[in-house]
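Researcher: I'd like a structural prediction for the single chain below. Treat it as a standalone chain; there are no partners to consider.
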Amino acid sequence: MKPRLNLYAAAPAQMQAFTDFSIAIANDGIEPSLAELIKIRVSQINGCAFCLHMHTRDALAAGETELRLTMLAAWHESPLYSERERAALAWAEALTRLPDGGASDAVYDAMAAQFSKEEQVKLTMTIAIINAWNRFGAGFHLIHAMPKPAAVAA
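Model: Treating it as a single chain, here is the predicted structure.
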């Protein structure tokens, strides 16, 4: 796969504004550990390798376990996630897959039981932002960092 476009060279002011907005939401949003799980799960659904690499690396650096990251694609079937995490992941999947049936009352009610009204907005912003970043990554073929050839061979 070959990158299609350098986003920051093509529209520097707009990309900087979007980056600044993303950072502001991350700094005053939901708890960082949950935000990373959301970003990884949404990136799995959207097939954005660049974002998967970035947020998996960030989650590991912040202390997330390999097992929880490995099981994230099957979180429905794993006891590794709290009720709050489950509610957030279900909400993230519903909003990411809107054409498949939208955000049902049941999914909303489960999320609303775990999050204050303000947190609901912050969670939804986190989901919206990673969906937007995924569209940049997948649409313009952003390439994730590559390991050195010796690391690949090992």
